[in-house]
Amino acid sequence: MHYGLGTVFHEYSEAMNTLSLNIIEFLGMSLGIERRYMREFYRDNDSILRLNYYPPCKQPNHTLGTGPHTDPTSLTILYQDHVGGLQVFVENQWRS
Prior knowledge:
Number of helices: 2
Domain Isopenicillin N synthase-like Fe(2+) 2OG dioxygenase: 46-95
Organism: Brassica oleracea var. oleracea
Distance between the termini: 42 Å
Number of strands: 2
Protein name: Isopenicillin N synthase-like Fe(2+) 2OG dioxygenase domain-containing protein
Structural class: mainly alpha
Strand order of the largest sheet: 1-2
Order of helices and strands: HHEE
Pfam families: 2OG-FeII_Oxy (PF03171)
Shape: flat
InterPro entries: IPNS-like_FE2OG_OXY, IPNS-like_sf, Iron_ascorbate_oxido_reductase
């Protein structure tokens, strides 16, 4: 069976949506909220799938990344592989 790039992205997006609903359900449970409440609350909401790839750079001080931004969603799942990953700018310095 041949899968086009659009099909792969669609299936990946669906899998990530399922994962995020599971995570949000467990977060709610950890706060003492009924198991299904969070899942039902978020079930019909839209998800955003953003894919960025930054290969290793021999001069990391020359990289830009995505630039300062906030995530407009309730939950962000960040895949971290060979790099330190997410950093936040707090009190005039970047922190991992």
